[in-house]
Design brief:
Layout: H1 2-17, H2 35-49, H3 56-59, H4 64-83
Helix pairs in contact: 1-2, 1-4
Length: 84
Amino acid sequence: MTNSVEETATRIWTDVLRPAPGQESAGFIALGGQSVSAVRIAARVESELGVELDLRVLFEDPDLEAFRRAVVQAVEAAAESRAA
């Protein structure tokens, strides 16, 4: 499951932020991330993965790897709460 979640997170990140070649590891802000793109990313995460992503995650200026970790953690936390 983790790989498919990471792939989905990567696709969402690149679809919304459209990093130029060589900038894939840049942070959210460096890629032009702002409130509108943060809301678009969070909405896509909820729509495609069924979990809410706290917008603060994006404003902490993550790079792609940190964003993927945050999404995986959100998915795992949601799965644990559903199992309880």
